[in-house]
Amino acid sequence: MGASGDSPDSCDKGTPASHVDEVEMLLARIEHLMRTQGRAELADLGVTRDQFHALLALCGAELTMSELGERLGVSCSTVTDLVDRMERAGLAERIRDEGDRRVVRARITNAGKLVLNRVRARRRQYLGCVLGAMTEEEQSTLRDLLTRVHSLLASQSGP
Questions:
Q1: Which helix (H) or strand (E) holds 84?
Q2: Which of 52, 67, 86, 105 would bridge with 62, disulfide CB 3.0–4.6 Å?
Q3: Burial class (CB in 10 A: 0-12, 13-18, 19+), 47
Q4: What domains, with CATH codes, occur in the chain?
Q5: pTM of the entire structure?
């Protein structure tokens, strides 16, 4: 077996394989449903998923192209194209750094903030309806368990 952790029993603590398979399938189905709903909401507002993530990154911060690329996990050329499209749509703008005119930062515009707020409101409504069908105790348990799963997955992440 290749990388560490590839052995069949490296993390096996008695969890039945069927439980692991079922949880993985449920997470994939949930992610698919949320992604599909999210795409529809964004398309309705004329925004791509990448633009939405860039708006989130720029909310409250002016970022250089490289900083934005790092936050989004994309190359500088990809960020340049993305910001070009966002500028044409009026969602973001470039500004020159006063201290060093070679440095270019991107910032969200008022139109970008409006779109971001609309998307957030729609997401809150969508998830609010789902969570509203649960008791407060179920919501709290779900949040705690998701936080725990995230923490455990993050601690398992390799380089």
A1: helix 76-88
A2: 105
A3: buried
A4: 48-148 (1.10.10.10)
A5: 0.71
